[in-house]
Write a structure and sequence with these properties.
The chain is mainly beta. It has one domain (about 25-150): Immunoglobulin-like, CATH 2.60.40. Helix content is about 15%, strand content about 50%. The protein has two helices and eleven strands; from the N terminus they run αββββαβββββββ. Strands 3, 4, 5, 7, 8, 10 and 11 form a seven-stranded mixed β-sheet that branches. The chain has a four-stranded antiparallel β-sheet with strand order 2-1-6-9, with no helix packed on it. The radius of gyration is 20 Å and the shape is elongated.
Amino acid sequence: MVAVFSIFFTIGCSDYAEKEPRDIDQLFPPAMLGQIMMDGMAYPIKAGAYRWERRDGLGTEIVQTDHASPYQSSKYIEAIHTNSNQKIEIKIEEDPAIKVYLWNENGREKEIKLEDNQIVLPSDNGKYIYEVAADWPNGTISYTFVIEIR
């Protein structure tokens, strides 16, 4: 009886697994993970607001969310502690076009120069809030990370 149950359980589970989406194109909206690389270490970055669309028959399906601003979100994001003038590489799935912004309590302070998906951190000590605006052909996602320079 145990052997028969095990066989049915295994077949049932494998059938279910095959129905799960296998690649990112089948998920809607897709969960595009992002991270920053610094000194050989990877740190996840927090996804926030997004807008995604796809053709659905004769129409277009759109999913859009609103989210707290990067400044507001930063209160709940653990800062990454590092030294000044470090290079950070930004990696996001499916290699979107990205722009990076520095934030303060009033909103976007300025766009940060980006070269080969890398930025250089400031030389002054302090807490810095960054937004990465990622843009794919079918959508956009805003990511946030916080750096604290000692």
